[in-house]
Amino acid sequence: MNFTRWSSRLPGTQRRGAARRTDHGISPVQRGEGSVPAARGEYEQHPEPLPDAPAIEDFPVREVLGSLPALVALVYGPEHRIAYVNDAYAAAFGPRPAGATAAGACPELAELGLFPLMDQVLRSGKPRTVKSRKVRDGGSYTATCLPVDSPDEGGGVLVFAADVTDHAEAAERLRASERRHRETAVTLQRSLLPQELEQPDDLRIAADYRPGGTDAAVGGDWYDVITLGAGRTALVIGDVMGRGVRAAAVMGQLRTAVRAYARLDLPPHEVLQLLDGLAAEIDASQIATCVYAVHDPNEGRLVYASAGHLPILVRDEDGSVRRAEDPTGPPLGTGGWIHTSGTIALPPGSSAVLYTDGLVERRGEDIDEGVAALERALSGATGTPQVVCDRLIRSLGVTAEHDDDVAVLVVQHPTRTGAAAELFHNAALDLLGGIEAAPRARAFASGVLASWRFSPELHDLGVLATSELVANSLQHGTPPMRLRLRRTDRRLIVEVTDGDDHLPRRRRAETEDEAGRGISIVATIASSWGSRRTPGGGKAVWCEFALPS
Length: 549
What we know:
- This protein is of the alpha+beta class and 549 residues long.
- Helix content is 33%, strand content 26%.
- The chain contains 16 helices and 21 strands.
- The protein has helices spanning 3-7, 14-22, 37-43, 61-66, 87-93, 102-105, 107-111, 115-124, 165-192, 244-262, 268-282, 367-379, 385-395, 437-451, 456-476, 518-525, and strands at residues 71-76, 81-85, 128-134, 140-148, 156-163, 204-210, 220-229, 232-240, 288-296, 301-307, 312-315, 321-324, 328-329, 342-345, 350-355, 406-413, 425-431, 481-487, 491-498, 528-533, 539-546.
- Mean pLDDT is 85; it is low at 1-43.
């Protein structure tokens, strides 16, 4: 059996339709149908002929346009004279006299900005559309202008406007809600950042935070400056990976934790190690990058640790720029990584820049290209820290419509000469131990403080603090021991280091105790005091005296 020929007899198939169009006047035998009469009688059906459909010209156009819910106006000629407006148009704006110019009789068309569009349609013969335009009464319309033939010279334009007021109001409510949400996030973000940067004695610092544009959700960028005592300063910058209020809240918790850990005066890598565990506890789904660096004026360098953050840049006095590359660990919150600390020199006359990825990252570009562009901008940036900060932001093309948050921290270690240099002095003495160490330290401190022309009261307090700290080190510490005196324009710092890592603590001495009062005396007479472990395995105990203004 020929199945192809058999399937052609099924009703509704293309082959069947083709056979009907081409086989008129051919006998059943010639068509090969004689061998299957039962099948032909069962499947072949003759549909009733369709009635003739009316032509489009048979429909009354005026009645069709008049019954449309959309607003329709027909104008003609270069002056856009009114030929017709439908019932919906008249209900919305009132009836319009035929033959009058649209400019005089249809102010709503001007409010929608359609007259230039109608002129374009007349000239080009192509339709034009404007979306969601408002009129004076508050309604919103989407209008389309279509060219039409007109017996009048110049042709005509059919204006078709749909009322989209409900949609426009819903969109405006959504935009207003998004604006309120964004303003809340920005307010929260700014309130969690330091309202006023601490200004250390030896550094000049400026910072700036720029939220992303209106189309970008607020992120979790932050920075901080923390004075650690004894002239040392911690510098922090970080970025929570996320957007909105949640990212800002996580940022605030991390910043608070950094300040708490900084008070322990731990090495940078230990601070990041603690932050890593905390970030996982706060929200395991969000990670953050961070750089924590400590500046010690006695060493002239930055000791830092990085958790997945971009490298610190340092500009030397001659304009050359260096990167602090290694070591860099994974972002905070990933766990399972032992962070390590690195160093980069920050001598007098140099500047350091800490920043987030919003400053250097651009879509379609490798982030290394952005860092290289920042290096070039920093190489030529001079002036105060705030001037340098503003210049870097401008040079990298950060505007009010930037698509990401930006945080920048600029740190300068100024070169001091003349009268300013006379306010900064250092003096140090190595102590060998034994019974002569304490009187030798007192004599050294007395001579140095006298040469720095301190008042008799401050001189005596400095000598007393030196005596107590040295005595504490002789009793509880181990060699090598060193006494360091430092004067800045704001304070006097007394510091004693030794080889034992046991940190002293202040305690209440009983009446019969012969020892245990040294640290209490220091804490009473000094503005502040503290202790920390040193990288070599020892400790440093220090105190500060504020100088008169």
